[in-house]
Amino acid sequence: MSISQPRLRSMLRQADKVAANGKRSAAEDLYRQITEEAPESAAGWAGLAGVLLDPAEREQAYEKALALDPKNKAALVGLAELRGEPIPEFPEEVVEEPEPEPVDEHDHGYTAVTPDEDEEEEAHIYYCYRHPNRETSLRCYTCGKPICIDCARKTSVGYSCPDCQRELQDKYFNATNTDYIIAAVLAVVLGVIGGVVIGFIGALTGFLFWIIMFFVGGAAGSFIGGVLKRAIGRRRGRYLPMIVAVIMVITTILPVLTLGGGFIGMIIYLVTAVPAVYYQMR
Questions:
Q1: How is the chain split into domains, by residue range?
Q2: Of 160, 128, 119, 129, nearest to 143 (Cα)?
Q3: Can you say how many angstroms the Cα of residue 256 is from the centroid of all Cα atoms in its chain?
Q4: Please, which residues bridge with residue 160 across strands?
Q5: Residues 32, 62: Cα–Cα separation, whole Å
Q6: CA 72 to chain centre
Q7: What is the C-alpha to C-alpha distance for residues 245 and 275, in angstroms, rounded to an integer?
Q8: CB 194 within 8 A of CB 269
Q9: In this model, does residue 236 exceed pLDDT 60?
Q10: Sign of dihedral through CA atoms 41, 42, 45, 51?
Q11: Position 189 pLDDT exceeds 90
Q12: Which contacts of 139-142 are long-range, i.e. CB under 8 A and separated by 24 or more positions?
């Protein structure tokens, strides 16, 4: 897919800002997207080299930038620093002041200024880093990456991208692999016990029994969730609630089917116990 010049400059500007803010990983993603869609971009290769950690990859990226633009200052300086060579000196650029435009006697000192269409378009167009074909005006308040409305996650201080939100959530999920094993094993044991009990008393029917089962199921779910939570040191896992809930459903249904108990009581039990377990494990 070819990349238009306004879009290329917009993406380069975004990547440069993200890199300047110290978001190396996010900047690397943007630079790689640029070099994939526009491999002829020397600035893209030079920027990518500036955020890479592996010296060999950095050198390769700098060499690609210089192959495209032998006078690229960022690539020349970066490659020299990487190889421990003297940094090349560049002549100072002399910027000539533009000559003043003649003023029409009839314009009363006012001059109509027409903005450059290319610059005006470049200043407002952003492209979602996950959906490169979608234009957007939203940017993640943490890393600055452009995001479309489908990727935006609204927070109290602005919009966040999925990557930053996941990184933030990971700080609260501290369960280890051992915790997952312990929780799964205990969930199987307690779930089977609950399923056997439901299978034996499931033959009972009547409105009063179903009301009792409604309260018993919620209490049993809270008890099982509390036991599991204490067994893993009250640590949180991203997938623990779902895993425990699925195990509880399976370990309740199988004994009931084996013992041939009442299915209405089982359904009432699951409807009340599973949400209670899920809530306790969050």
A1: 1-90, 123-171, 177-281
A2: 160
A3: 42
A4: 153
A5: 14
A6: 33
A7: 8
A8: yes
A9: yes
A10: negative
A11: yes
A12: 140/164
